[in-house]
Amino acid sequence: MIEVTVEGDRVRFDVDGWDKLWALKSRLEIPLADITSVRVDPEPARGWWHGVRMPGTQIPGVLTAGTFYQHDGAVFYDVHDPEHTIVIELDHEHYRRLVVEVADPAAAVRLLDDAMHGRV
Q1: Of 62, 83, 97, 120, whose CB count within 10 A is highest?
Q2: CATH number of the domain that residue 18 is part of
């Protein structure tokens, strides 16, 4: 699971617990200006094919974590439960998108949307 924090003009995505090991990352920091959209969307986390895993962990139906390369670039995943997934589309970053599980998807989307539109 990921904890999302907005700090000024940056967004911090902290990877919790054992997911640090599975995803091979403990934190991502992204400039707010590089986020093009954010949405609640369980679909990208479902299924068994998420791209070429490099590096990361995938146990279908249980866990998808780490970096996966798809036709349009690198995607970072950290998902156990697709129903708690948000998708953050990025521009000018190594990752094209982040597909991550959060405790409260609606609240995380609101937080990021408010920050993107200067309402924080």
Answers
A1: 97
A2: 2.30.29
Closest Cα partner for 64 from 13, 38, 53, 118? 53
Distance CA 63, CA 71 (A): 21
Rg of the chain in Å (alpha carbons) = 13
pLDDT digits (tens, 9 = 90+) for 39-78: 999 999 887 777 777 888 888 888 999 998 988 899 999 9
What is the three-class DSSP state of 74?
strand
Number of domains in the chain: 1
Whether cis (ω within 30° of 0) applies to the bond prior to 55 is yes
CB 100 within 8 A of CB 109: no
Task: Residue 50: give the domain boundaries.
Answer: 2-116
What's the Cα-to-Cα distance from 24 to each of 7, 37, 42, 56, 103, rounded to whole Å?
Answer: 23, 25, 22, 7, 21
Q: Which residue has the tokens 């068994």?
A: 48
